[in-house]
Amino acid sequence: MIKRKRIERKLETALERSRVVLLSGPRQSGKTTLARGFLNSESVNYFDMENLLDLERLSEPFTALAPLKGLVVIDEVQRRPDLFNILRVLVDREETPAQFLILGSASGNLLRQTSESLAGRIEIVQIDGFTLEEIAEANSDTL
User: Fold this and answer.
1) How many domains does the chain have?
2) DSSP assignment, residue 130?
3) CA angle in degrees (0–180, nearest 5) for 34-72-102
4) Which residues form the domain of 117?
């Protein structure tokens, strides 16, 4: 696995400042791997929108998300755009003890949806392809 320390630091900083952080980037760029460094994917606070069980758990999204505490990760959030309005309601409530890290494949549509629903409430961290610094000569065989 290739470490993405620069992006990790950006995420840590964003999570210190914001109740909702979007990690956006192309498919297979390491978004899920980075998120799993912050929260184990076996946690009840981890939702993968490509997992049928997690989709079922979010069949009533407000009921499922409202009681959660700590960091909540929602992976592939672009598959459930209805969640953005629910997140807005949750983060506007003072008694909501959760913070949300949402992951999505980069698209203009995803960024437009988040900026419309979560304006002023979200910080966006963009992840791109691997940099030369990240892969370095020692890691070139990994790729």
Assistant:
1) 1
2) P
3) 55
4) 5-128
